[in-house]
Amino acid sequence: MQNDLLDLKNLGNTSINWLKAIGINSYEDLKNIGPVEAYTQIKQREIKVSKVFLYALQGALTDTHWNDLAPSLKQQLVEEAEKRLSTT
């Protein structure tokens, strides 16, 4: 399994820097925290990230281009993220 974040689909230098800022330095770190938690922690740092970044994180874990994720999965991710952000 790929361990370097730069090897993962959908992630570039900027998004990797955001992930490292919250302590995610590998595929395993991202897998353990999950895309929704990673996204919400980055949003809480007042970094302007879009929903596409949330999809990109999910796609990075499944080796899928973010645009190829099922619409229902995208909706589920957004709902989970909004719920988490509204309770913090």
TrEMBL record:
| Record PANTHER family | PROTEIN SXY
**Pfam families recorded:** TfoX_C (PF04994)
Domain of life (superkingdom)? Bacteria
Please state the span of the N-terminal signal peptide per the UniProt entry: none
Q: What is this protein called?
A: TfoX/Sxy family protein
Annotated TfoX C-terminal domain ranges read: 1-80
InterPro entries reported for this sequence? TfoX-like, TfoX_C
